[in-house]
Request: fold
Amino acid sequence: MSKLLKDSNHMCFACSPKNPIGLKLVFEHEGDICRASFVAGPEHQGWNGVMHGGLLTTILDEVMAQWLWSRELSAMTAEMTTRFVNPVPIGAKLTIESRLVANKRRLFLMEADALLPDGSVAAKSTAKFMPVKV
Reply:
């Protein structure tokens, strides 16, 4: 794991357990899949009763980034596209899964899905991650 993730100043909004207003995502890895779960509370709303799309996009981005970090690949999001398919009700447990699509010479191409409890897709993302020196 990167020194940046072990640093005492690590305050990532998405994954740091030390960030008091963060999402505190926890990741698991199964084969070529990185996975996290999240349950949106009232403070994560956009429209009444529905999770804010920007926060959902943040989580999709983070699960893709963690796929790379877990393999000691340092990269930052260069471009990301998110397609919202179904609203996420407040209180529904989301499962977010990411995978590598391709490793180009200067980019990692990733994809992620956010799944509702019934297995239907809430949102899908594709992204290009640019390798960086840490």
Remarks:
- The CA atoms of residues 39 and 92 lie 6 Å apart.
- The longest helix spans residues 53-69.
